[in-house]
TrEMBL record:
InterPro entries: HATPase_C_sf, HATPase_dom, His_kinase_dom, HisK_dim/P_dom, HisK_dim/P_sf, TCS_sensor_his_kinase. Its EC number is 2.7.13.3. PROSITE patterns: HIS_KIN (PS50109). It comes from the Bacteria. This is histidine kinase. Keywords: Kinase, Membrane, Phosphoprotein, Transferase, Transmembrane, Transmembrane helix. It is an enzyme of class 2 (transferase). It catalyses: ATP + protein L-histidine = ADP + protein N-phospho-L-histidine. Coiled coil: none annotated. Residues 219-425 form the Histidine kinase domain. The chain crosses the membrane at residues 12-30, 130-152. It comes from Pedobacter segetis.
Amino acid sequence: MKLLTYSSRQYFWLSAIIILLSIPCFYFVVNSLFLQSTDEALKKETNLIPQYISQLKSEADLDLWKNVDHDVEITTYDPKNFVKGPFTKEFYNPETKEDERYRILETKTNVFGKYYNVSFKVSLLENDDLIQSILMVQITLLIFLLVGFQLVNRSISKRVWKPFNKILSFLKNYDLDKKTPLHQEILGIDEFNDLNMEVNSLITRTEKTYHLQKEFTENAAHELQTPVAIIKSKLDLFLQDKDLTKNQSLIVEQISYVLQKLGDLNKNLLLLTKLENQQFHFDEEIDVREQIKAVIEHLSFFADAKYQQILFNRPKQVFIKGNLSLFTQLIQNLLINAIQHSSKGTIINIQLNDDDLIFINEGAALNFSEEKLFSRFSKTIEKDQKGNGLGLAISNKIAEVHHFKLTYQYNNTKHFFNINFSSKG
């Protein structure tokens, strides 16, 4: 969930709760004010009773008052039925055919020597309609206020968080290899300016360390080439000496084997450095099927030594754009890996279609995490295994610079390495 959505949602629920609580409170306050105003009007009416009585001349005038003024009810005084203070009561209205609420105030009055209960009543229908109208207006205004608040809040938040989104977008698109220019824009908010400065400082330090590391790797690989070649040539001359004993020859061969691995490591480190520095062109037309056939023919003796069989379904031709030498090495690395990690007498299956090139070989499950499979020097190297732990790392990097996707899966005692061409840019 985005921060803007989260904050807007919190404001929305807070506003909704306030509106829901304010409506009954507002109704209670307005209704109380109307009742208070009505009660004051009724009290004024009761205060005028002496004036009304003074104008009555006989019982007939009293009866006439009862019949003419429907808002006044005059009955014989009964202490049991007398109610002190204003109260609300419902009466049936024959005109509207509905019950209506009335506010009533009773008073005890002496007329012509007899006590009467004089009740003044006022209809609350108009008050109820007025309250409902006011409530509808209030609810409408509150809804408009809520919607307007949300829109204004989102608009302001987008402007406020725009610098942060710029920094985030820069970090998402940043690539050490592509030397993305630093984000130097001066932002309108101090905190984001500080964040921008710290991000740029961190990137500068990272780039410096990264380029120093690459430079060291390249220089070390270059510098090692000459002494390794000299030592190897000296050992070859030494092996030609007829006076060498069998034990000495064995030791020299072991040293030569280690030097060969060191030389291969050198070449692989140089290749990785060149890949990271993008020192290759990728505009060659490659016939994938023919390259696989050539690699199989070149490496078949490795499989024959382990009594393994390499099956290739030889489908229709598939062409891709890329670097021929690098792509050939990618196929070689994956096939050599399949041969080395398959048992004797097993079958290595290579499948090709328009979108995928898949290497399938039988073997035991990995004894390390799959996340480390394509990492440099992070896998367990068995004593009898040839290689230096860089083959799959180089393969993954070659696939990456071609904009292919190299994935691994282990299923039913089989290893699957899949190169997906459809991921290419």
